[in-house]
Automatic annotation (TrEMBL):
It comes from the Bacteria. This is Alpha/beta hydrolase. One of its GO terms (molecular function) is hydrolase activity. The keyword Membrane does not apply. Keywords: Hydrolase. It holds the Pfam family Esterase.
Length: 261
């Protein structure tokens, strides 16, 4: 595998930004890690999103994501978005425009990754789980699958508990409910459209996680709406041991086209 730290200027944010990128490399003599390159000119890609207190380095620092994806022939793009909840902030930067429009375009221009829907996936933890579902449900034509690990899928709890910070991100509760930031409303809209090509969704959460009830409520709503959701729960807290194990399950679940090694 090839690992790159990419620092670049974002026209959308008006500041320098960063992402870490893992790219497949076909190897036969590397010790201790099986690797598979893609036979395609452009690699399938997983956009892997961080949580509220983290950045673009965290998945590499807390998990073995590079080793997990090595046999799969898939690229991984890990961007930094601060504490933005992947939103165009009321008082701050336009991180939604950045993550949904500018970043994929730049990543495809910098690296040999595919723009095809069937090759594009997104996953994240906590705030990143929210971001992953928001991307997939906002752009079902771009993503084949999305995974949320301990996701903050109903951000109402964040608005209620962090009023000052949430006001800078979303505005008040009235601004949030029914908006494009409201994943419950977004799910209802996608279901009402009867979209035949909704992305596959994977949701998991530990039963000891403070976001467990939040996840159960979202699961129930998604299932009532008939969304293509795979749901898993089990022992676990809001911590990296759980996420390190679960990202491996996500990679097994992704509808990847298998590459010959």
């Amino acid at each position: 595998m090839a690992l790159m730290q990419c620092d670049f200027f974002s026209e959308t944010l008006g500041v320098s930004a960063s992402m870490n990128v893992i790219l497949p490399q076909r190897t036969t003599t590397q010790i201790g890690m099986a690797s598979a390159g893609s036979s395609e000119a452009r690699h399938p890609v997983l956009y892997l999103l961080h949580g509220l207190s983290d950045d673009h380095t965290i998945w590499l620092r807390r998990t073995s994501i590079e080793r997990y994806v090595a046999p799969l022939g898939i690229a991984v793009v890990m961007p930094a978005v601060g504490r933005s909840f992947y939103a165009n902030m009321k008082q701050g930067y336009k991180y939604w425009d950045f993550i949904s429009e500018e970043l994929p375009s730049l990543a495809r221009s910098f690296f040999p990754i595919s723009g095809k829907r069937e090759d594009n996936f997104v996953a994240g933890l906590s705030m990143g789980g929210y971001g992953a579902f928001k991307l997939a449900l906002s752009h079902p034509d771009r993503f084949a699958a999305a995974a949320s690990l301990s996701g903050a899928l109903d951000a109402r709890f964040f608005i209620e508990q962090n009023k000052e910070e949430a006001a800078r991100i979303f505005g008040g509760m009235d601004d949030f409910i029914g908006s494009d930031n409201d994943l419950l409303d977004l799910a209802k809209r996608r279901a009402a459209e009867g979209c035949e090509r909704l992305p596959l969704l994977y949701q998991c959460c530990g039963t000891e996680d403070f976001l467990f009830e939040n996840n159960v409520d979202y699961r129930d709503a998604a299932m009532r709406l008939g969304l293509p959701l795979t749901y898993e729960e089990g022992p676990g807290e809001h911590e990296w041991g759980y996420w390190d194990a679960q990202i491996q399950r996500v990679l097994e679940w992704l509808p990847l086209t298998k590459n010959e090694t």
